[in-house]
């Protein structure tokens, strides 16, 4: 038995397409042809890329404005090294005279460390030694 494919006209763009290919699109809130869906996805992709580029450009300009005169590549390198050192250093918050909240620099696990008894001597999660207290 031979089946004929029925062509329908898209309500959005007026193009004709096979009725089985129509898609219920949540953005247009109607059945549209595959070409309309492709156009919408391509347009949203282009808009999102343009938005990301604008944000990156604005962030770069703001960073340039915040830097003092005479800033060079060496200063940027020193700043980057300082940030990596700060991120790897353990974070210590004082709770009271005897206890501190210690964040392990290896696994970022937070636990309470007793300063006077020096307990626990290692991170309970990964076993790294407690340093800097």
Mean pLDDT: 88
Instruction: Give me the number of helical elements.
Output: 2
Query: What oligomeric state do the depicted chains represent?
Result: single chain
Shape: elongated
Order of helices and strands: EEEEHHEEE
Termini distance?
A: 83 Å
Give the structural class.
alpha+beta
Helix share of residues?
25-40%
**DSSP strand (E) fraction?**
15-25%
Largest sheet: 3 strands, antiparallel
Radius of gyration: 30 Å
Low-pLDDT stretches? none
Please tally the β strands and state the result. Answer: 7
* Strand order in the sheet with the most strands: 5-6-7
Number of domains: 2
Salient structural properties:
about 130 residues; alpha+beta; 3-stranded antiparallel β-sheet; two-stranded antiparallel sheet; elongated
